[in-house]
Amino acid sequence: MIEPRTRLCRSFQTAPAAVAKADTAKYLRSGLTSEGFEAPDWLVPDFEDGTAPGMKAEAVENAVELVADTSFSGEIWPRVEWSYARSALRDRGRDQIDTLVRELADEIDGVVVPKLGGLEDFERVDAILSELESRYGVPEGSVDLAIILETARARTSLREIAGRGSDTRLSAIVFGPVDYTAELGGRDLGDGRPSWSGLLESLSNETSANGLIGIGGPFDELYVTRAGVGAYNADGYASQIEREAHLGLDGSWSLHPKQTIQANHVHMPTPSELEMALSRIERANAAIAEGTGAVAIDGRMIDEATLKNYRNTIRTVQSIDARHPEQSTTRYDDPLIDRARTIDVDGSDG
Amino acid sequence: MIEPRTRLCRSFQTAPAAVAKADTAKYLRSGLTSEGFEAPDWLVPDFEDGTAPGMKAEAVENAVELVADTSFSGEIWPRVEWSYARSALRDRGRDQIDTLVRELADEIDGVVVPKLGGLEDFERVDAILSELESRYGVPEGSVDLAIILETARARTSLREIAGRGSDTRLSAIVFGPVDYTAELGGRDLGDGRPSWSGLLESLSNETSANGLIGIGGPFDELYVTRAGVGAYNADGYASQIEREAHLGLDGSWSLHPKQTIQANHVHMPTPSELEMALSRIERANAAIAEGTGAVAIDGRMIDEATLKNYRNTIRTVQSIDARHPEQSTTRYDDPLIDRARTIDVDGSDG
Amino acid sequence: MIEPRTRLCRSFQTAPAAVAKADTAKYLRSGLTSEGFEAPDWLVPDFEDGTAPGMKAEAVENAVELVADTSFSGEIWPRVEWSYARSALRDRGRDQIDTLVRELADEIDGVVVPKLGGLEDFERVDAILSELESRYGVPEGSVDLAIILETARARTSLREIAGRGSDTRLSAIVFGPVDYTAELGGRDLGDGRPSWSGLLESLSNETSANGLIGIGGPFDELYVTRAGVGAYNADGYASQIEREAHLGLDGSWSLHPKQTIQANHVHMPTPSELEMALSRIERANAAIAEGTGAVAIDGRMIDEATLKNYRNTIRTVQSIDARHPEQSTTRYDDPLIDRARTIDVDGSDG
After folding, report:
1. Inter-residue contact A236 to A221 (CB < 8 Å)
2. Which of B22, B306, C208, C321 has the fewest CB within 10 Å, making it most exposed?
3. pTM reported for the whole predicted model
């Protein structure tokens, strides 16, 4: 198990696992072979809403075939079908999880479960995973779990569900604003969907309190047309995901390789953030070496929450550098990334 | 019991049950005989803050007399006196409930209880209703309950109180911003009251999670004066209730027949919302008939939360059409309302 | 024990208890001798982040020496070191509390504990205080407790921690946005820190529901430079603390005597608020005297929440007048403050 805070999920990119094209695995294949800043930290082969009803079986087959044979640099997290409210969907989700655990337990990092209800529904999913791990001789807890927060019940139970974090396979909570708004009966009266800012605050808090990853929702206005010319909506998506980073969410949902580029950038420490973190932790290490046992800058103690934040910044960069060296060497100049590679991050962590 | 989501409460209009006029029942009578879009879904004969201290007994008498003899098309929900903090008010509230259950159990739909405290206060009210139903030989649960959310304690206990929803007579939670702001010590320093947007998000979520109706608070700036001419403040009220609809609240508080017209309009599906809902559910029904068992539009599955939302839209229109045909035939053209009347809404609901 | 709502904490001013100057107690001495509107309601000798690591022992000594000998008009609340996450800090905090209870139990009003975690951490602090009170023969509950809300865990447990209010020594909850934002991983991408408005709403609600004092976080942009000239940032701080007053928080954090002046002003009822409160309560008292038993203005009953609010306004002014007569006589004209001094505030409180 990677230490929670250094687990990367700047970009959570869903890819339909089967589409009505000559190559039904076109988007999945494209995601698995993406490179550079287009490579998402988490690729999510989607069996649920992204895949047409008649193509669910083929979606699972595509995933089994391609994922078994990939050298993808990030994590792989298939999204299965599920619904707290419909047993037929749960049955299909269970079958899909069965196939994934049987065929791909070593290749995938976890499964993403949508439309989760309250705590009892969470425990139902958890029990299914345990049972299937046991049946197929996979070590308990091998397959992690991410949930989509998109029902009123899950929101009501957010604290309890997130609170299971440290003791369970739960790794991430992802906001699903479309279904959430539909379930609450929210209406677009010309200003789009509600921003649900109270929910996002709580999501950031509960994931942070429990060492989980918190991820924002999708942004589907991919293109904008201005005076007759359409273009990729770079501003719209960037604004949304900067808001998410501002609130402390760890990553953003991507529906397109360009969104993935942006999410990877926004949720990556800036060079000046990295420089600040390195110089502070270097000073903390020096303080330990000198035996002063505390870090002061200009006579003021740097408190532990701030140091922890700096360590997280450096560990995030180290994780990016380990998985995607082409990203880190593009973003940071050589002396900076060298300091990040060689620093003793934990040296001052008592 | 009507299925929760189709129970109409677009407009929650309070009317003082006794006022210092020749006809002390003037406003109550006016509410009970309102027609067209001026007829509120819920008329609330008010014994509490709308009625002067010296006229409480007359208010109850007016309600008993007029309500027993009305052909009002909506629901009738008297608001009694109550306070978690003052036993004298609870005693008066209990007496008022006693009279209502004894005299009007068949005519009223429920009672509205203000200034509720925490869960134990909710249970106190619930127990009083059960006891009085039993005493007067009224079937248990005949008289429903709506509460005003206007104390810090009720906000703290919102999740637990709303969580009783499906098992109790609780039907609606209504926001009371004036008392709420007073209790928290919120101050108007020139920008009016706080918008309490976090509370409104939670109210929408908890009512949705438990099948309850959520209703926004009153707007008392009824008139605005511009360059010496006063006029009904149509913009101000519309902005507030559109915000409430945006967040998924089901209805709004009205203090005046013009506000009722606006609340009935805003919380009524627009023709294009109805058209969309009908065409989607018609397609879902066709999919069931064809045996495909899932609804796809352009190859993309329509998920259950969205279908549920469409069904709610149609059921809301059906409820309006049943109670207020003059409203539905005014708002929708004939072919559209005919489709809404004849569709098999539940056909595709597994 | 003063009745919770009349306990003053318009201004919570931290002062480093030791600084690297010839007089290491310079700021603490300055706070303890402040007068007029510069005198904070709560002076907080700071052993934590305001004091350099090498000066902690001297900070405690300075506090013991100066506080034992002061005639400061407000309350004194030292902030000790603490952290739910680091036992070394808790050990130091315990030693600091030990010294405070042993040496200053009669002089201080309570201790401020930062970086508190969940409920179990709160109970750890509470137990330490009880044990030390017992050890040094100080009556149980003599030393009150204020906590800084600045960790994800404390936010998660806010309702439970605040809920202990009436049964424990807990008196105030103070927001700590810097550490809170760091712990959640919130980032400043050019717009500063998140405003955490959902948290502030909850803080106002939970403190109100439990008779506690709620206090906003520090504002450290003390000076602004405009066209080459620096000046005290009176607008920036005033905007923040007016927002806090708007939401019903009782006081604001001050880092500087000028901020204290502003916090004392903003959280002090305005003359027109006081006039309104006095005239309403005078009328309520008259109604009781006349035996009508309820207060109506223009035929409309003034509800209890509003009356309670008016009583709080008057009691706040009475508390200010008792502690800081130079403030009340400056802010209110003689006839007004005389009415506030002589009114029977509780006369109409049943």
Report:
1. yes
2. B22
3. 0.95
